[in-house]
Amino acid sequence: MKRVEVAWARPDSGFTQLFEAYLMILMREMPVATVAAMVGEHDTRLWRVLRYYVEQARAQEDFSDVQKVGVDETSSRRGHRYITVFADLEKAKVIFATEGKDLPVVAAFKRDLESHKGRAENVQEVCCDMSPAFIAGFEEFFPTAQLTFDKFHITRILSDAVDQVRREEQRERPELKRTRYLWLKNPNKLKQRQQAILESLTRLKLKTARAYQLRLTFQDFWDLAQENAESFLCKWFFRATHSRLEPMRQAAWVIRRHWDGILRWFTSRVTNGVLEAINGLIQAAKARARGYRSNRNLIAMTYLVAGKLRMGLPT
Fold first, then answer.
1. In this structure, is residue 8 part of a structural domain?
2. For the chain, which residues score pLDDT lower than 70?
3. CA separation (Å) from 278 to 50, 100, 139, 145, 186?
4. Among residues 205, 184, 185, 187, which one has the least CA distance to residue 195?
5. Is 30 strand, coil or helix?
6. How far does the chain reach from its first CA to its final CA, in angstroms?
7. How does pLDDT run across 199-243, given as a tens digit for each residue?
8. Where would a tag sit more exposed on the chain, N or C end, judged by fewer CB atoms within 10 A?
9. CB 64, CB 119: distance < 8 Å
10. Alpha-carbon distance values, 21 to 5, 9, 281 (Å)
């Protein structure tokens, strides 16, 4: 018996190229295990197909014009396993994803960028959270890039501080129980009944209400003219650190230690809003990658759904 290669199938694939194109369309929209059951194949073979086409498409990527980068991490499994995702903020696409969330992931990103015709010195703006590992990594490997700290991350820090005040206060004020959601949203995002409850609570001179007001006041920062931003921060910082609310005081000091990267927003105007949207795609990808067995498969799925890759599949 002699095996021969044919024009309509990849060597050693076992599938025709048209069938592989069909599989890729299905795997973009459905769990891989479901697709495997539909076509009567083991999902391991389908993951190999997916990884092959993703790797082939990524090999053709050109990052020579990447100038604005956003970075964020997402948990890959329950526990403390993460993948870190780097996005081109101007093209709203994932350009690199890797395991881990420490300084070496930034070094790995630089290597990958340069292997796709990109240059570290071309990256002008980086938006990230306040992770010391990310900050150190970009300072070392992208020394000419300016850091902007993600406004959504800052909002999360303040919301967490408000919630901590609430949890501490509810031990003595039972009316605060089951009100967590109210304090995490802006009043205009609440239903009418929820707004009424919030208004009644704010009249009780609660510590939580004071913390909430500090959070709402900080939101005005993003609407200021650049020349007024730093003086606003100084006044807000004074109020927060003299509020006698320890979680808010600690949050204020986090902001103070990252002052320049927060003020940089008024020049760069970059946020990780793109990554927030991409993260939604990744969460959906995790559902489609049920039983993915390895981060390698999850990363491949991430590229498939959020990398805007040109697959070159037959039609």
1. no
2. 1-9, 11-14, 77-80, 287-293, 315
3. 19, 18, 25, 23, 24
4. 187
5. coil
6. 32
7. 999 999 899 999 999 999 999 999 999 999 999 999 999 999 999
8. N
9. yes
10. 19, 11, 21
Structural tokens at position 213: 């007001």
Q: Decide if 170 is inside a domain.
A: yes
Domain coverage including residue 297:
68-150+271-306
Q: 189: which 2 tokens?
A: 């995002």
Decide: 19 and 40 in contact? Cβ < 8 Å: no
* Confidence (pTM): 0.88
- Last residue of one domain, picked from the residues 59, 92, 113: 59
4 occurs within a structural domain: no
Cβ–Cβ < 8 Å for 222, 210: no
Q: What is the CATH number of the domain that holds 279?
A: 3.30.420.10
Q: HSE of 156 in the Cβ direction (CA atoms, 13 Å)?
A: 9
Count Cα atoms within 13 angstroms, Cβ side, for 249: 7
